[in-house]
Design a protein that fits this description.
Largest sheet: none
Helix content: over 70%
Shape: elongated
Order of helices and strands: HHHH
Number of helices: 4
Structural class: mainly alpha
Number of strands: 0
Length: 116
C-alpha cells in the first residue's frame, strides 16, 4: 500500500485542486450551477481517485483510478477554458492555474505509467 501524501506531486496537486474549487466558487451565481458544480465535482473526484490508487491492491484497479484522476484534471482545465471563452474569467487570471493543472495531469500520468 502506498501513502498518497508521499507522492512528490501531492502538495502541488492539492493546491491546484483548491484553487480550481475556489475559482468555481467565484463564478457568477448563474454559472455556478453548471460550470462551478462540474469543476468542484471533478476536483473532489481527482483527489479521491489519487488516494484510492495508493490504497488499492490490484495494479489494474490502481491504474484505472489514476486514469480517472487524469481525465478529471483535463476536464477541470477544459471547463475553466470554457469559462474564459464565455467571458466569465480573464485568460491572464487563470493561465497559471491552467499551466499547473496541465503539469499535475502530467504528474498523474507519469505515476500511472510507473505502475504498469
Amino acid at each position: 500500500m502506498r501513502n498518497h501524501k508521499n507522492l512528490t506531486f501531492w502538495d502541488d496537486l492539492i493546491k491546484a485542486l483548491v484553487r480550481s474549487y475556489r475559482f468555481a466558487s467565484s463564478l457568477p451565481p448563474n454559472d455556478q450551477f453548471a460550470l462551478g458544480a462540474e469543476i468542484k465535482r471533478q476536483a473532489v473526484r481527482v483527489r479521491t481517485k489519487v488516494v484510492a490508487a495508493g490504497s488499492i491492491e490490484s495494479a489494474v484497479e490502481s491504474v484505472n483510478a489514476l486514469d480517472a484522476a487524469y481525465q478529471g484534471l483535463k476536464e477541470i482545465a477544459s471547463t475553466i477554458e470554457f469559462a474564459v471563452e464565455l467571458g466569465l474569467a480573464k485568460p491572464e487570471l487563470v493561465s497559471d492555474l491552467l499551466e499547473t493543472l496541465d503539469r499535475m495531469s502530467g504528474a498523474v500520468f507519469a505515476y500511472r505509467r510507473s505502475m504498469t
